[in-house]
Amino acid sequence: MRHRKKFNHLGRKSAHRKAMLANMANSLIMHKRIKTTVAKAKALRMYVEPLITKSKDDSTAQRRVVFSYLKNKEAVSELFREVAVKIGERPGGYTRILKLGNRIGDNAEMCYIELVDYNEGMLSASKPAAEKKTRRTRRKKSSGETAAVETTVAEKEDAKSAPKAEDKSTEASSDENNAKE
Predict the structure, then answer these.
(1) Rounded CA gap, 92 and 95, in Å?
(2) Is residue 66 pLDDT above 90, yes or no?
(3) What is the distance of C-alpha 114 from the center of its chain?
(4) What are the boundaries of the region Disordered (predicted)?
(5) CA 88 vs CA 41, 44, 58, 80, 115: distances in Å
(6) CA 170 from chain center: how many Å?
(7) What fold, for 14-125?
(8) Which of 47-61, 84-98, 166-180 has the lowest mean pLDDT?
């Protein structure tokens, strides 16, 4: 029985699976984004995120541990020099899975797996969205509502100018009181 065993074996023997995940992790670190199936992406996320966490501590011991998983000197250097610096403050969740749909040949679910801090398109799109503070409604604006909005804007402008007129009248009444005395 395989109760409480959540690890996906991906239909491969352990040596094949470890080699495949190491190669995919190398590609992800070097290219920052790869296209694969959803099952492989989820397995890769469990494989690569602890390595990225280890890369935050740049020591010889951590480099050797990560090298024992990746077996690629260039990928280890890239991980410790550039990726670890960019994700330094992030407490976890270094990868993102974006589902694409099904593959034509075998109908497998495809996706992109990418490093979160390297997707400039999503980073630039999220900043303006954070600044925009509008309410969304399901109602459609009719011509009567736009006219009502215009009248309320005009009323607000009148209300802003009205206190100024009252201030002038109070100043005039105070001048009259001073003149009477």
Answers:
(1) 9
(2) yes
(3) 11
(4) 127-181
(5) 23, 21, 11, 11, 13
(6) 56
(7) 50s Ribosomal Protein L17; Chain: A, (3.90.1030)
(8) 166-180
